[in-house]
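Please predict the structure of the following assembly.
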Amino acid sequence: MTSCEQLSDRMPAVARGEAEWTAEEASHLAGCEECRLEWELVSAASGLGRDVAAELDAHYVTERVLGRLRAAPRIRRQRLGSIVAALAAAAAVALVVWAGPRYTGPRTGSPQRSVDVAEIPLPELDSLGTSELEAVLQSLDAPIGTSVEGVDSSGLDDLDTTELERVLDRLEG
Amino acid sequence: MSPPVRAEEPSDAALVAAYRAGDEGAAAELVRRHLGAVGRFLYASGAGRSDVEDLVQETLFRAFRKVDSWRREASFRSWLFTIAGNLLRDEYRKRKGRQVISIDDRELPDRADPEADLAANETERRVREGLTKLPRLQREVFLLRAQEGREYADIAAALGTTPGAARVHYHHAVKRLKELVK
């Protein structure tokens, strides 16, 4: 004997034309108001948007998607400079914080402190080109919170998922 | 279910692997395979008829950009639907809760039996309107099941829940839709 649960499980396949009701199922459907209502919902939902989908131009969508994907790596490369700058700026801030408490004011005849800071190795900077080093210097001059190009970190709470993903994309490359 | 894939046709997983290796043709084939289903899902979820193409495009673009995160626990299509669902939610938020969505897309397709089709169209319109009033998880479970015929295990993998919970969501959706569509 067919139960409502069994009939429910079969509905998507029948609605999609992949199966047909057996005589027993058809009989149950005819006599069960709850199943009939569910069947109406499933069959209506199954057909929803068929005409909309038929209007989609596969060639056009494909070209647009692939075009954007081809452009995406270029965007990532352009972002590399600002990402390096952001990381370098963060390193610089960390250095300042680390060195700050030890600084006791200008001392004549004792320039050793600044030499100490300057001598801390930053091998990442050695590998940068002139333009990238300039970007680092510019980022150090930028106000705090704008080290990632175009994004003010103080306003992250206001961003939606897409915008947050973009920020992460920039940071992660 | 996935669109009919003939035995000699590569699987979605094979096409994804080919795309990751640099084969754009594989991406084009994946677009062709899933474009219609994603469009139907977006429309049934409440996207306006005129917005569907742009949303499909954005969904597929996002999917290919982060294709490495497809873990194959769910089918590729179900995974696409979760991206489409996230996109719709973002669009809704961007518009500050205003209707993304034109429930009143009532253009009638040209069919042979106008009276019967009018009734069918009215039911579809009410179902669609009802779907937009469901919680997201219920709506997506219902559509993955009713439109795509997905098994609960696949739905659960795509939506990050369990098969048992997916079944419960489906039945809640049906119950609520019965009330809304009456």
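The interface with chain B takes residues 8, 11-13, 15-16, 18, 34, 37-38, 40-42, 44-58, 61-62, 64-66, 68-69, 72, 160-162 of chain A (CB under 8 Å). The radius of gyration of chain A is 32 Å.
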